[in-house]
Write a structure and sequence with these properties.
The protein has 14 helices and 9 strands. It is α/β, with parallel strands linked by helices. Bound molecules: pyridoxal-5'-phosphate and iron/sulfur cluster (SF4). Iron/sulfur cluster binds at residues 119, 121-123, 126, 128, 162-164, 194, 223.
Length: 336
């Protein structure tokens, strides 16, 4: 019997939604009225990085359209298994930057924390799809990590990355943020998350309150790749975040077949702004093995960027960059 004090009753609706994310390719194909024959042909390739998609994200995919730009981001494809020269399991050299305790010190003044291995959605282009999360994440090493942060007084910004930090419950997140805020040299807290897009009900009043109450200046970088990913009720949720003083930014990945058209990227920037989000970065794909089919050649990217630059006001144009291993900052496209 479920009593009011039972843990089951305490799951928030977003946690229930997270638990009900689809991981069975057959279920995905059926929900989208796609041919069952795809199961063997194209979908049976998820062994090392399983399918994962929320009901909300699923509802944004056009049924029956095999080229849907959202579907392509989550559907395992057989071509992922074909090795491609230059595409590796550690494309941005995270394994060199990590301290082994979930802290990546790659960028001056900023500490990037691998908050958890969990994500609400599995993106086929993910540059951390091979990352050894089980061992190297902040929750496992919190005390030593906090000690390290307290000594590194050159750091003024803590970035919660992942995995996805917003898959953590408020119960987990609140003390982490409080303890970070106790370090006097830390001024800014940044969350990198795709959760609001795929699980908008994660933006609860309690979360907004938590981010409003900290003394840290909070920003959230959403990872939206396509205007179709921006839909109700996200607009209302984001408004609450902004009212709580959170600065909203976006970074996208340039993906062949998903957003490699000027019209798409223009519409994306415009819709982001309408949702109160400023375009920040547009990343060229990190060469992670399994994602080569998303790659857009650098020369093609340059041509798209040039056209986009003349189509948008400067403040709606994201910085086009690549993460070059060993570099202390993102490398601008025009320097590639
Ligand atoms: C590059 C990067 C950062 C930090 O770089 P900024 O230039 O400070 O934004 C943080 N998270 C991810 C995922 C990145 O790729
Ligand atoms: S949400 Fe981010 S970390 Fe998670 S699979 Fe997608 S791109 Fe990777």
């Amino acid at each position: 019997m479920i009593t009011p004090s039972s843990p089951l009753r305490q799951l928030s609706s977003w946690q229930n939604d997270l638990a009900q994310a689809i991981s069975d390719p057959a279920e995905l194909l059926e929900a989208l009225q796609l041919p069952k024959s795809w199961l063997k042909e194209r979908v049976d390739t998820q062994a090392n990085f399983p399918l994962r998609v929320t009901q909300h994200y699923l509802s944004l995919i056009q049924a029956g359209d095999p080229h849907d730009p959202l579907l392509l981001q989550v559907l395992p494809q057989q071509q992922e298994l074909i090795p491609q020269p230059g595409f590796t399991t550690d494309p941005v050299a995270d394994s060199v930057a990590t301290s082994g305790n979930g802290l990546l010190h790659k960028y001056a003044g900023r500490a990037l924390l691998i908050s958890t291995g969990a994500c609400a959605i599995h993106c086929r282009y993910c540059f951390r799809r091979h990352y050894p999360y089980g061992e190297d994440n902040m929750l496992r090493h919190w005390e030593s990590l906090l000690a390290q942060l307290s000594e590194q007084t050159d750091i003024d910004e803590v970035i919660l990355s992942g995995g996805d930090p917003l898959t953590l419950s408020d119960h987990r997140l609140a003390p982490l943020i409080e303890q970070i805020a106790e370090l006097p040299h830390i001024q800014r807290l940044r969350l990198h998350s795709r959760v609001p897009l795929v699980l908008p009900n994660r933006i609860t009043p309690a979360l907004c309150q938590m981010l409003e109450n900290t003394r840290l200046h909070v920003s959230m970088v959403l990872h939206c790749n396509h205007p179709q990913e921006l839909a109700e009720p996200l607009d209302v949720a984001l408004m609450q975040l902004r009212k709580s003083g959170v600065t909203l930014l976006n970074q996208s990945v340039l993906l062949r077949g998903v957003n490699d058209q000027v019209t798409t990227l223009k519409a994306l920037s415009e819709k982001l702004f309408a949702y109160g989000i400023l375009p920040y970065y547009l990343h060229l794909l990190d060469p992670v093995s399994g994602a080569a089919h998303f790659n857009v050649p650098t020369e093609t990217a340059k041509a798209i960027e040039e056209e986009l630059r003349s189509a948008l006001p400067g403040y709606l144009l994201p910085r086009w960059v690549r993460d070059v291993p060993g570099h202390a900052a993102k490398t601008p496209l025009n320097a590639l």
